[in-house]
Design a protein that fits this description.
The structure is a single chain. This protein is mainly α. It is built from two helices and no strands.
Length: about 100
């Protein structure tokens, strides 16, 4: 084999070795991308859970406030139940 053939063969072997090394870089890049996507998904899930719990606490607070207001109205009118309140509203022509 002459010098040109040896150089060509060495270049080809170097290209094959570089290609194999490039596969490791691609693998690292894909694993990193997957890791980032997974971490982003976990953060999004945690934020969703926190937001949902906050909404649930707000709902409970408003339900309690509503129940206290209903009780207060019934006490002010001297009534004991919602059906009595409806009957009161019909008698006073508040509702038809």
């Amino acid at each position: 084999m002459d010098r040109t053939g040896v150089a060509a063969r060495a270049g080809a072997l170097g290209a094959v070795a570089a290609g194999a090394g490039g596969g490791d870089g691609l693998r690292r890049s894909l694993v990193l991308t997957f890791g980032i996507a997974l971490a982003g998904g976990l953060v999004l899930a945690l934020l969703t859970i926190v937001y949902t719990l906050r909404l649930e606490r707000e709902l409970e607070r408003r339900l309690d406030e509503n129940a206290r207001a209903r009780t207060h109205i019934l006490q002010k009118l001297g009534l004991h139940s919602v059906p009595e309140l409806i009957l009161y509203a019909v008698r006073k022509s508040i509702i038809a």
